[in-house]
């Protein structure tokens, strides 16, 4: 788990640095400045900050991920989601 958190943090830092080094991103179609969220999505889509080193997942971890994925289909998707609201006075 610690290794996964370190990978996530290093990815976050490298993406943040890549975003800081670039000029403000604009939408090619409209010429408008992109929001920070849109900039993150564009950076991920483009692969500009992708690692050049493969980061394989061990067989044991992949097996666990696949089992969790398959288990997610056991519970039906509800027609509507009930919204929980708290009332504070």
TrEMBL record:
Signal sequence bounds:
1-20
- Which InterPro entries does its entry note? DUF3613
Please indicate if the UniProt record lists Metal-binding as a keyword.
no
Q: Which UniProt keywords apply?
A: Signal
List all Polar residues biased stretches: 42-55
So which domain of life are we looking at?
Answer: Bacteria
Q: Where is this region: Disordered?
A: 42-61
Protein name, per record: DUF3613 domain-containing protein
- Native organism is Methylophilus rhizosphaerae
């Amino acid at each position: 788990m610690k290794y996964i958190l370190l990978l996530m943090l290093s990815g976050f830092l490298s993406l943040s640095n890549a975003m800081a080094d670039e000029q403000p991103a604009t939408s090619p179609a409209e010429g408008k400045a992109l929001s920070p969220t849109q900039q993150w999505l564009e950076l991920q889509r483009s692969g500009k900050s992708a690692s050049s080193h493969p980061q394989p997942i061990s067989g044991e971890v992949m097996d666990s991920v696949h089992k969790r994925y398959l288990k997610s289909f056991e519970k039906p998707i509800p027609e509507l989601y009930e919204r929980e609201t708290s009332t504070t006075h």
